[in-house]
Write a structure and sequence with these properties.
The structure holds two protein chains of two kinds. By secondary structure, chain A is mainly beta. Chain A is built from no helices and eleven strands. Helices cover about 0% and strands about 55% of the residues of chain A. The radius of gyration of chain A is 13 Å and the shape is globular. The relative contact order of chain A is 0.33. By secondary structure, chain B is mainly β. The radius of gyration of chain B is 13 Å and the shape is globular. In chain B, the strands form two sheets. In chain B, strands 1-9-8-3-4 form a five-stranded mixed beta sheet, with no helix packed on it. The chains are: A mainly beta, B mainly beta.
Chain lengths: ~110, ~110
């Protein structure tokens, strides 16, 4: 049984561009959360999706948006990229008792 | 703000037990304590979780104080591969919520 899978693993963009990151949750998990982790910092909560709706949101601007599909998979979109958006983006899927993370997508903005 | 506080770093001799503390003094009655570790900026790896009873699995043991305001993760025989950043978080069972990470503890296992 595959755990949480994320794609792509690495990508490079330039300032002003847009990026879409993808996440497939662990089988049996219906909730997906996204985190941003800058180098040397702990993960910062971006938002959480359940039943295809955004349920909780951290302190991130509207440039960060997401979507959850009927099969529970999710996308994170970031518009108008800034240099400061360079980070490891983590997806976590969960159910009542479990919370598992993917290996992340490393985004570099030049 | 994070609901947990941890020491920023700890050292442990290889083969000895590593005891990593975590304070969660504002934990509510239905929040669980979860532990993860992160190696070389890979995704956080689940270790163990518990509500109020001590828990043990193949990776570690979790000791939660009776008042639930703190806990300790125990790696019984630390190896070099246990060198990582360890995070404890608190999380409700079910529902949706914002889970906040602290800065974690950087554990260095020394040969």
């Amino acid at each position: 049984d595959a755990g949480v899978t994320q794609s792509p693993t690495h990508l490079i963009k330039t300032r002003g561009q847009q990026v879409t990151l993808r996440c497939s949750p662990k089988s049996g998990h219906d909730t997906v959360s996204w985190y941003q982790q800058a180098l040397g910092q702990g993960p910062q909560f971006i938002f959480q999706y359940y039943e295809e709706e955004e349920r909780q949101r951290g302190n991130f601007p509207d440039r960060f948006s997401g979507h959850q599909f009927p099969n529970y998979s999710s996308e994170l979109n970031v518009n108008a990229l800034l240099l400061g958006d360079s980070a490891l983006y983590l997806c976590a899927s969960s159910n009542t008792r479990e919370l598992f993370f993917g290996e992340g997508s490393r985004l570099t903005v030049l | 703000d994070a609901k947990t506080t941890q020491p920023p770093s700890m050292d442990c001799a290889e083969g000895r037990a590593a005891n990593l503390p975590c304070n969660h003094s504002t934990i509510s009655g239905n929040e669980y304590v979860y532990w993860y570790r992160q190696i070389h900026s890979q995704g956080p790896q689940y270790i163990i979780h518990g509500l109020k009873n001590n828990e043990t699995n193949e990776m570690a043991s979790l000791i939660i104080t009776e008042d639930r305001k703190s806990s300790t993760l125990i790696l019984p025989h630390a190896t070099l591969r246990d060198t990582a950043v360890y995070y404890c978080i608190v999380r409700l069972s079910g529902g949706y919520q914002k889970v906040t990470f602290g800065t974690g503890t950087k554990l260095q296992v020394i040969p």
